[in-house]
Design goal:
A hairpin with a 4-residue loop joins strand 2 and strand 3. Strands 1-2-3 form a three-stranded antiparallel sheet, with no helix packed on it. The radius of gyration is 13 Å and the shape is globular. The protein has 105 residues and is mainly beta. Helices cover 7% and strands 14% of the residues.
Length: 105
């Protein structure tokens, strides 16, 4: 679907299914919230985005450092983004096939 992310619970996602582009699609983000043993699966390893909760910031869905967090993209690149990043852009980059027009507001 248009809101699907890079990872699935029961299979891998082939690169050709990432229609928004590998360099524009987030695959992993840091978090300090609801962490647990990573090997058990579930929220400590893979979680959906709660659309009505703030995405970035200390004690929010995704955080890692005092001013921002590291984000891994589907092309293998890693970027540091600050907590004041554009929420609309970030939500678009969390999908694999949303066909969002990035950079157009």
């Amino acid at each position: 679907g248009p809101k699907a992310g890079c990872f699935r619970y029961n299979s891998s996602t082939p690169d050709e299914k990432i229609l928004d582009g590998l360099s524009q699609t987030i695959s992993i983000l840091e978090t300090e919230r609801e962490i647990g043993p990573w090997i058990r699966g579930g929220p400590s390893t893979l979680r959906g985005v709660r659309e009505n909760d703030p995405l970035l910031g200390r004690n929010q869905q995704f955080s890692g450092h005092p001013n921002g967090l590291y984000v891994g993209f589907a092309d293998g690149s890693v970027r540091f983004i600050t907590y004041n990043a554009n929420d609309k852009l970030l939500k678009a980059q969390l999908t694999i096939a949303g066909a969002e027009k990035l950079g157009e507001e």
